[in-house]
Structures are given as structure tokens and as C-alpha cells.
Amino acid sequence: MKTSGLHHVTAIGGDPQRNADFYLRTLGLRLVKTTVNFDDPGTYHLYYGDGSGRPGSLMTFFPWRDAPSGRRGTGQATTTSFSVPEASIGWWKQHLASAGVETSQVTSRDNEETLTFQDPDGLVLALVAHPQGDPREPWDTALVPAEHAIRGLHSVTLSVSKEDATAGMLTGDLGLSFTEQDGNRLRFSAGDGGPGAMVDVLVTPDAPRGLVAAGTVHHVAWRAPDEPTQLTWREELVDKGVQVTSVLDRQYFRSIYFREPGGTLLEVATDEPGFSIDEPLLELGRALKLPPWLEPNREQISATLPKLRLPSENNPEVRA
């Protein structure tokens, strides 16, 4: 079985309003679904992405207002990178500075320019300009116009203390290919590679073990085209002795979860059915959506959640 690339990255945040303001206004993404953590419906699950929330464009959050800060280290995805147009890194450096976001110097690796920074909770993010470009259509807003906007996920970086077992799972169980090495950083790619289909493995034997809490990644999800493929994938993983969850209904996709040997929680998520199954495309993210099994508790859940105000950038009718 081979994945075609990244499906989404899910992280833990702090205050949900601050989280939404940053990802919608500063980064120019669209909130494509406002729902709750199905395992803990007292907190939101916010999905950010392109105009329709296509797999590979998605960054999602469990924002707990009083969540303690996590610790970056091994056993985690320690950097989440987004893809931007090749000529846009300078624009982004200026845009982030005007928003009060401190950034690194622009670096170059593998002919890609990279700008690194942190979100309000300390989550490490990067913007990467791939030399061959990225044809994916972005979400267009007044604050982040289409010519500079994020195209989707570029890659993730997994920090591990040892490389062999992690590399073995990426190639043997996810179908990725080893493409290159730069010192203690190894790159693996799905399919033909390119933005949205890459993962870097950073080998740091002396780094502390990471602690998953606010400002860290909870899990990294990889794409499966449909449920039959996912079921076959699960059977293959179980046959190899991997501890895998049962298939879980996440309403907008189906999921299985397991850990790679270095400790990072991975997910295989289906491309189907998508985010427009319970609200029109133009209205994505505006209303709180609950799965059928939580709908009877809507009043109680709504009363528990903090109020969330969406900026006009998330509303196509207002933007027009």
C-alpha cells in the first residue's frame, strides 16, 4: 500500500479565538469546518485549509484555552511546513513582521527557500517555496492575496532519536521512497514527491523526549483514497504486528491510528467524503457542526464551548 501524500496535520492550541485569528487572518487559510473533538466534545476541532478543505491542504487544531505548554523533542512532528509560491518568501517575511510575528532568516536547502516562525502557542511552522512551483489553487483573501497565498501543506519534520525503524515504516508500511540526505536530515517522498508529499526525518539522539500539549503536533495524517483501501492497509499493518486502532468515523473522513517506532502518532485518513456533506461549500466553517451521535447534546455542548467570532475573510459573500 502506498499513500499519495499528506492528508492533514493536527496540533494542540490554546485560546480558540486567538488560534482562529492567526490562521485565518495572518496565514490566510479558510476555516472549512467548525466542529468538536469527537473524543472530548468540550473542546473545538477547527479545520483550516484551502477553499474546499482538500486533503493535503489541512491544518487542524484542538484548542484548549487553559492547556499547558508542550515540549518539542523526539517522538513528535516538530515542524509543519506550508507551500507558497517561489517569489513570495520576501512578501511573507514582511507580512508576518507587520503582524508582529518574529521570523527566521530565509534559508535555502535543496533549492527551496524556507522561512520559519511560530504561531501564538509556540508551534513551529515554516513557509517553503518549491522551485518547480505548486499548482494547487489557494484561498484568496484581502489580507493574503492569491499570488502569495499558501497552496497547502509542503511537508512535516519528524524528530527521532534513531532513524532505522522509522525509515523502515515510512518506506515499508506507507510506501514512501527515500530521496535524499543532508547531514542528520533524511527526506522521504510519496509518489513523485513535491509539495504535500514529503516528510523529513531529523535524527537527534541527544534531544529530550517531546511532550504533547499546547504548541505541539498531536498527529500526522496520510492519505488513503477510499475505505476499502484503508481496510486493506489496516489488515497489512496488523499482520506486521503494528498496533492499529479500529476504523473510526470522523464524519468527513475515516481514520486509523498507529505510532511509528520513533513515537509519533500517525493516521491514515480517507479522501472521502469531504467537508461539504453537511453544509454548502460557500458556508463552510460558519456554523457548529456535530456528528449524529452528538447532535442530541448540542445545547449542552454549545453552552460549554467559548464563543468564536469568524473574521469576514472566511465568508465569500462578505469578501465579494
From TrEMBL:
Q: Which UniProt keywords apply?
A: Dioxygenase, Oxidoreductase
Q: What Pfam families is this protein classified in?
A: Glyoxalase
Chain ranges passing through the membrane: none
- Top-rank taxon of the source lineage equals Bacteria
Matching Gene3D superfamilies: 2,3-Dihydroxybiphenyl 1,2-Dioxygenase, domain 1 (3.10.180.10)
GO MF assignments? dioxygenase activity
Question: What are the VOC domain coordinates in residue numbering?
Answer: 5-130, 152-271
What PANTHER family does its record include? RING-CLEAVING DIOXYGENASE MHQE-RELATED (PTHR36110)
| The protein, known as | Ring-cleaving dioxygenase
Q: What is the lineage of its organism?
A: Bacteria, Bacillati, Actinomycetota, Actinomycetes, Pseudonocardiales
